Amino acid sequence: MNNVRIIAIALLGLGLLVLISTARNTSQYVDFQEAQKRQDTKGNGPWVHLIGNLVQNQQEEIIGIIQGPHETSFSFLLKDEKGKIERVWYPKPMPTDFTRAEKIVVVGRFVKKQFHAKKILLKCPSKYQAEDSVL
Length: 135
Fold this sequence. Notes:
Layout: H1 3-24, E1 28-30, H2 32-37, E2 48-54, E3 66-67, E4 74-80, E5 85-90, E6 103-111, E7 114-123
Parallel strand pairs: 1-2, 5-7
Antiparallel strand pairs: 2-4, 2-6, 3-4, 4-5, 6-7
C-alpha cells in the first residue's frame, strides 16, 4: 500500500472514532414518561433533556419548591410538555430568577424513581423586549 491510502484509512478510522464517542455523550429531549422507560434495571437511566414549566396553583403562585439543608440544594415540581408532573432534585443552590423563568430545561436522569438534574437552563422573560408606550 502506498502512503496516501494508509493516511486515508487512518483519517477515516479517526473520523469514525470521533463520531462514535460524540454520539455516546449526547442526550435527547424527552418527557418524563420516556425518561422513566429508559431507566435501567439498576435504577439509573441515560442523561436526557426535559422541557417544562414550574407548577402553579389557581392563583398562579409557584408551588412545590423545597429548599435543601443550608440552601445548598433544592427540589421542585416540573410539569413536562405532556402535562406529567414530577419532582426534580438539584444538588446546587437555586439559580437566580429561577421562579421567573418562562420555560425550564433540566438535564438529568432518573435515579431509581426520582429525577436528578445535573444542569438547569432557564428561558427567562427578556429584559430587553420593547414595552408598549403611550404616545
